[in-house]
Amino acid sequence: MKVQLYVPPGGYFAERWSKGSTMPPLGLLYIGAVLEKAGVDVEIVPADVLKLDWAGIRRKIEADRPDIVGVTSTTENRFQSFRLVKIAREAAPGAVTVIGGPHASMAAEDTLAHIPELDVVVRGEGEMTTLDLVRALDRSRPPGGITHVAGISYRRDGRVVSNPPRSPITNLDGLPFPAFHLVPFDKYNFTIDVPGRGPLPAVNIMTSRGCPFNCNFCATPINWGRAVRVRTTDNVIAEIEERIEKLGVRVIFFYDDTFNVSVRRVEDICRKMIERRLDVVWRAEIRLDLMTRPLLARMKEAGLFHVSFGIEAGSERVRDSIIDKKIRIEDFHNVIAWCRELDIIPNVFFIFSHPTETWEEAQETIRLIERYKDEVEASVAILHIYPGTPLEAAAKEIGRLPADFSWSEKHSSKIITLPTAQGDVPLFLDRLSWSQVSELLFRWSFSGGNVSIARKLPRVLANIRSLHDIKRYAIMALVYIRLKIKRLLRRQPA
Fold first, then answer.
1. What is the pLDDT of residues 92-137, one digit of tens each?
2. What is the pLDDT of residue 455?
3. 325 Cβ partners below 8 Å, 6+ apart?
4. Residues of the chain whose pLDDT is less than 50?
5. Buried b (16+ CB within 10 A) or exposed e, 462-475
6. Is residue 175 part of a domain?
7. Is the domain of 359 the same as that of 395?
8. Is the residue at 8 inside a domain?
9. Which of 101, 123, 292, 386 is the one with CA 20 to 30 A from 221?
10. Does 178 sit behind a cis peptide bond, omega within 30 degrees of 0 on the bond before it?
11. 341 and 399, same structural domain?
C-alpha cells in the first residue's frame, strides 16, 4: 500500500516564509517515521518547498496512483488543504483521502460535512492513528473496516461518524525520531539569525506534548491534551546529536508549547548539553511564572540565546478574568530584566481586542510595547478565533460568528479577517473599533514592529473580497496617515 503525505502549496505560511527559510513539517515527519518503521511505502511531498503548483500535484498523483493521500491542515491554510483533497479525488478516484493536523482535529465533523471529496479525518496525535488506519484499509477496500480505529472521523450511510478519541501517547521515547530523510531538507533552508553569527542552519525539535493551562484562545490543550508528556533527557540529547551529525545544524528550535513546564527536566537537559559540549545554540518558548533567574542563567550557559513568552495583555483584569492566563506583571518585568542581564533576546507575544477589553485597557498593552521597544522583539496580533476553543463558543454566543458558521466555506464579508497578516482566520472584535485596532497595530509598527506597509500592499489588494474589505482597509489607511502626520509634526522644531 502506497501512502503519500502532502503539505499543500501557497497560503498564509508560504507567504510568511517567503524569504526562502521554511520550517519543516514536524507532524508529518513523525507520521512518516512511524509508517516507515512499520514497513509502509510512504512518501512525504512538501509541495511548498518543492515549488509544486496545483497542476504539478495533479500530475504527480495521476502518475504515482497512491492508495492513500494524506494532507496536513492548519486553520490558516485549510482552504489549500481542501483544494488538494479535491485534486487528489479527481486524479486518483480510487485513493482514500485523509486530512489531519490541528485544524481538522478541531473541526472534523464540519470538514467532512462540507468537503465531499474527503474520506477520513485523523484527529489529534496522528502517528498511531494513521498507522492503524493504513493497516485497516490494507485489509478492507473501499473503507469499511475502519470502525474500530480510534481517533478518526468519516462518513457512514451519509452521516458523519466520529470514533472514540485515541488515548495520548504516554511513552514519547517509543516514537522514532522524525524522518527528515523523507524530505529534501536542504530545500527548506531553515535558518535562524544568531547575534554576531548571522543566519545559521536550524532544526525544530519537540521534547514534550500537552499543555495544562487554560488560555481561552488556544486549542493546544484540546489537540495535545492537558497532561504534559515528556521525552527523557537522553532521548532528547540523542536527537540533537543526530541532527548535528546528519543535518549539520547549529541552532535548535525547541518547539514545545511550554519548554519549562518541568523545571527539573530543563535543568537536566541543560546539564547534559553542557556535559556533551554540543555545538549548538537554541531558542525555546516558556511560561513566565515558571521561570527563575538561576534557571534562565543555566539555560544561557547551555546555549540559550532567544526566548519567547506570552503576556498577551497589559491589563491584569484581561489576563486573569478573560484570557485565564494568570500571569503577574511582576513576572514579566523580572524576566525582561534577567534577559537583559544575561544577554538573551526576549520575544514577547501581545494580543489586542480580547472580549470586553476596553480602549483604556488596550492602552496598557501598547504602553508595555512602547516601554520595552528597544529591549524586546514584540510579536503582535489581533485576537483570532480558532475552532474548538472557548473563544469560538464566546464568539458565537455574542454574534461575532453566526451559529451556523462553517470553517469549510468562505466567510461572509461581514466576518472580519486580515489574510495578509494573520491568514484567513476570523478576528474577534468586541469593544474596540476597527479604527482603534488599526491605531494599536500602527503604533506597534512605529515602535519597531518592522512592518512594511509598501511590501504588504500588493497582497492587501489581492485579498479584497467586498466593499466591507475596501472600507476596512480605507480606515486603516486613514489611521496610518493620521499617525504619520502626528509623528512628523512632533519632530518639527518649535
1. 999 999 999 999 999 999 999 999 999 999 999 999 999 999 999 9
2. 60
3. 213, 215, 310, 311, 312, 313, 319
4. none
5. eeeeeeebeebbee
6. no
7. no
8. yes
9. 292
10. no
11. no
